[in-house]
Amino acid sequence: MDLKKLAAALIPDDDLIDPDKYEQIYPPRDLPQGAQVTRLAPSPTGFIHLGNLFSALADERMAHTTGGVFYLRIEDTDLKRKVDGAVESVIRSLKYFGIRFDEGAEIESKLNIYGPYYQRQRAQIYRAYAKRLIEQGLAYPCFCTEEELNKVREEQNAQKLITGYYGKYAKCRNLSEEQIYANLAAGKPFVIRFKSQGDVNVKHPFKDAIKGEITVTENDQDIVIIKSDGIPTYHFAHAIDDHFMRTTLVIRGEEWLSSLPIHLELFKALGFKTPVYAHTSSLMKTEGETRRKLSKRKDPELSLDYYRSQGYYPEAVVRYLLTILNSNYEEWERKNPQADWREFKFKIDKMSRSGTLFDLDKLSDISKTRISMLSAEECCAFLKEWALEFGSETDKLHFRDEEYIIKILTLIMGIGGKKRRKDIERASQGVRLMDYFFDDTFNPQYAFRFDDKTVNAVLDGFAAVYDPADDNQTWFAKVKSLAPQVGFAAEMAEYKANPGAYKGSVSDIAEILRVAVTGSPNSPDLCTIMGILGKERTLSRLAAAKR
Ligand code: GLU
User: Fold this and answer.
1) Cα-based distances in Å from 480 to 147, 243, 332
2) Do 11 and 133 have their domain in common?
3) 70 alpha carbon – ligand 1 mean position (Å)
4) Closest residue by CA, ligand 1 atom 3
């Protein structure tokens, strides 16, 4: 058969160049010895999940600890799954977690010479190579209809055979020249299939950078490389793009392991050196006695948006992922709690080989710890970022006065004090803790434990002597001085010695004031709270609480 003629008939495009020219257009990268070129290659579906961040973190670490490059490629060959704004969302999400690309789709970089980074814009390259494979007798047209393929699949299933287009089932593999041209003349739609030279009875040892030594069975499937709409499949685009974008290390989910034989054969047929592969194990969750993969449908915590909208401390998510990415990370962090996580020496061969258990409680604990390590300014910035995106309109307005917020946070988070508050895991909780400092979110329950007359006497009595200039001691002395006027014991000891003689003790007076000013019997230091609220607001709250 005249294969050159066939290639020209199947791929008549007149804008294709000699595929070898791409070797000069996309020259090997000029990088130091050992530098790794990695990529994140998501489909633009708009759903960016923890697994993406997990791989991206490994990609980013491998590139940036070796002087390499980490780039973003958009695998948009399947238009059905495309969602507007999805690319921006990937970039924004990863940036939120401190992961940046050096190059790629929508990234401003002078390194962007390996683009375009959207596969749909690279049709010419794929088609040039498909044409070459046809000329070499390594690809052919397939005219099988969907129905015919389904029928074959049913037959294979019934006989418990491997499904697919191979061996005697590869019907179009041996079409005669006449049949092919007759089909073309009849205008039958066709795909281009790869003509596999592999044998499933042959196995080869293979070294995966994460899984270690594995065995790979040769591929014998004549997979589709160019679909009937002229667009390549993932397999074909992967081999061509990772070659010409000069990827050295492909880190991807283990669900791709079953496609590895296809990819190895494609790289060989195309005359490209295969990159190193690293297949990450899936994130698992325990459910009762069993373990299962995190699922998009069942587990909201799989989506990265979950962590942003709930306001987990972003660095805590990264630090948590590092604990599951590298088993020695936790020990390193224990020894270097203040160090930047980027200082940790990440190693790909320390990654777990099989299912990685995802533990949201542990992530929450790390978030609590990290939040408890923030300065008041950092904490304010963190809560503000969350509030501006996910908070209510009132929350947003509150952050206009950052000085006020910083005072509040210093107190409620115990910043600079002996005991830091360590139970806040999310920005949403932190923002709610500040509610009583603002009149529009102050929602007191006024659960006083004394009769109205006593409450009013305490509130009036304190209002009469309150001076915001008082230090803590003077403030407390004034609270004590109210005791005899309202029938309470000024000293705890007196009260304990003779409880029947008093309505309560000085601490009960403080509680009445606390409930009036904060709406709750539990709060941090009340004198400081009054100082932050200011005289006017304190007095108006004392007045408003009267029965
Ligand atoms: N587009 C593929 C995916 O979203 C990428 C797989 C790979 O990294 O090669 O799963």
Assistant:
1) 89, 79, 51
2) yes
3) 15
4) 42
Q: Judging by DSSP bridges, how do beta strands 103-104 and 69-72 pair with one another?
A: parallel
Residue to mutate, 235, 256, 263, 296, ligand 1, most ligand atoms under 8 Å from C-beta: 256
What domain range is 384 assigned to? Answer: 374-441
- Do 345 and 456 reside in the same domain of the chain? no
Q: Same structural domain for residues 135 and 267?
A: yes
Taking the centre of ligand 1 as the mean of its atom positions, its distance from the CA of residue 140, in whole angstroms, is 26
Distance 316 CA to ligand 1 centre (A): 26
Q: How far apart are CA 363 and CA 54, in angstroms?
A: 14
Nearest ligand 1 atom to alpha carbon 55: 8
Residues with CB under 6 A from ligand 1: 41-43, 75, 238, 250, 252, 256
Determine the distance separating the centroid of ligand 1 and the alpha carbon of 165, expressed in angstroms: 23
**Which amino acid residue places its CA nearest to atom 8 of ligand 1?**
252
Q: Are residues 333 and 344 in the same domain?
A: yes
CATH number at residue 160: 3.40.50.620
Residue 473 pairs in a beta bridge with none
Question: 260 and 150, same structural domain?
Answer: yes
Q: Cis link prior to 28 (omega < 30° from 0)?
A: no
Model pLDDT for residues 4-47, shown as the tens digit of each residue: 999 999 999 999 999 999 999 999 999 999 999 999 999 998 78
Residue nearest to atom 10 of ligand 1 (CA): 42
How far is it, in rounded angstroms, from Cα 43 to Cα 15?
27
Domain endpoint, select from 253, 280, 307: 280
What is the tens place of the pLDDT at every residue in 330-385?
Answer: 999 999 999 999 999 999 988 888 878 999 999 999 999 999 999 999 999 999 99
Other C-beta atoms lying within 10 Å of the C-beta of residue 543: 12
For 170, left (φ over 0), alpha (ψ -120 to 50), or beta? beta
Measured CA to CA, the distance from residue 376 to residue 207 in angstroms comes to 49
pTM: 0.89
Ligand 1 atom with the smallest distance to the CA of 242 is: 9
Domains in the chain: how many in total?
4
Give 41 Cα–ligand 1 centroid separation in angstroms. Answer: 5
* Residue 472 maps to a domain: yes
Q: For residue 147, is it within any domain?
A: yes
Q: Which run of H or of E encompasses 378?
A: helix 376-390
**Could you tell me if 264 and 134 lie in one domain?**
yes
Q: Quick check: 394 and 440 in contact, CB under 8 A? A: yes
Residue type, 132: R
Ligand 1 atom closest to 255 (CA): 10
Q: Is residue 480 part of a domain?
A: yes
Q: Is residue 102 included in any domain, yes or no?
A: no
* DSSP 8-state code for residue 231: P
CA 256 to ligand 1: nearest atom:
6
**Domain's final residue, options 371, 397, 427:** 371
Which atom of ligand 1 lies closest to the CA of 238? 9
